[in-house]
Amino acid sequence: MDKEKIISVKNLTKKFGNFTAVKGISFDVYKGEIFGFLGANGAGKTTAMKMLIGISNPTSGEANVAGFDVHTQAEMVKKSIGYMSQKFSMYDDLTIKENITFFGGIYGLSRIQIKQKIAQLVEELQLQDVVNNLVGSLPLGWKQKLSFSVALLHEPKIVFLDEPTGGVDPITRRQFWEMIYTQAYKGTTIFVTTHYMDEAEYCDRVSIMVDGAIEALDSPKKLKEQFKVDSMNDVFLKLARNIE
């Protein structure tokens, strides 16, 4: 059976004046896949993601996300995806319950749906004792897990995660990835950027961007075999040296 494409990108390019930040990248992502988008800072990952989530217009090329064209249907793209930014995006001066209610309203959920979602998240994240506490009082790891859950409130087909585990401890990182696995098992596509090379091992496939271009794309196992190394960190280092 053919896998269902949920993201399709062809020759996507972004220029800022004479500088080309994203250089004609092409790839597909499939339903329920955990797709890692890797690269050093400045490689073009975030610029590419902004085009895919409909907040930055491509200079040229094509991209279809969740069945919608990023050029002409950017608003429909935004409604069909979840997004968790690199910086924590919830409101510290609102309670957990108030944040869920606020974002549920933004996503167009009814009052009944929001009430159901609050009960569901409180149960899943074991927030019974802190649901009425200010989000600002939570540890960073809990904030990140809550932010991920809120990005899923409207049951999007795809969730884009931009460096979701930056700054959290190893145990929380592992717990966060367990949440990602659970959601992917349910059929949600996970598109994740990270600079932690060990996290690349958790992805079904990864692409590696260098200087605005995708220089490698395959499963972690096949990439390690291709470059004859034992870890994804070694793949990244060997690829960078080869390009230099």
Automatic annotation (TrEMBL):
<keyword id="KW-0813">Transport</keyword>
<dbReference type="GO" id="GO:0005524">
    <property type="term" value="F:ATP binding"/>
</dbReference>
<protein>
    <submittedName>
        <fullName>ABC transporter</fullName>
    </submittedName>
</protein>
<dbReference type="InterPro" id="IPR003593">
    <property type="entry name" value="AAA+_ATPase"/>
</dbReference>
<keyword id="KW-0547">Nucleotide-binding</keyword>
<keyword id="KW-1133">Transmembrane helix</keyword>
<keyword id="KW-0472">Membrane</keyword>
<dbReference type="InterPro" id="IPR003439">
    <property type="entry name" value="ABC_transporter-like_ATP-bd"/>
</dbReference>
<feature type="domain" description="ABC transporter">
    <location>
        <begin position="7"/>
        <end position="236"/>
    </location>
</feature>
<dbReference type="Pfam" id="PF00005">
    <property type="entry name" value="ABC_tran"/>
</dbReference>
<keyword id="KW-0812">Transmembrane</keyword>
<dbReference type="GO" id="GO:0016020">
    <property type="term" value="C:membrane"/>
</dbReference>
<keyword id="KW-0067">ATP-binding</keyword>
<dbReference type="InterPro" id="IPR027417">
    <property type="entry name" value="P-loop_NTPase"/>
</dbReference>
<dbReference type="GO" id="GO:0016887">
    <property type="term" value="F:ATP hydrolysis activity"/>
</dbReference>
